[in-house]
Amino acid sequence: MSKPRTPNVWLSQAAVNGALLLAVVYMLFPLVWLLTAATKDAGGLLAGNAFSFEGFDLGGNLSRLAAYNDGVYFHWYANSLLYAGLGALACSLVSVAAGYAFHVYDFRGKEKLFGVVLLGVLVPTTALALPMYLLASEVGIVNTYWAVLIPVLVNPFGVYLSRVFCAGYIPDEALEAARIDGAGELRVFWSIGLRMVMPGFVTVFLFQFTAVWNNFFLPLVMLSDQKLYPLSLGLYAWNSNAHAEPDFYPLVVTGSLLAVVPLVVAFVSLQRHWKAGLTAGSVK
Question: What burial letters (b/e) apply to 2-39, b meaning 16+ CB within 10 Å?
Answer without folding.
Answer: eeeeeeeeeeeeeeeeeeeeeeeeeeeeeeeebbbbbb
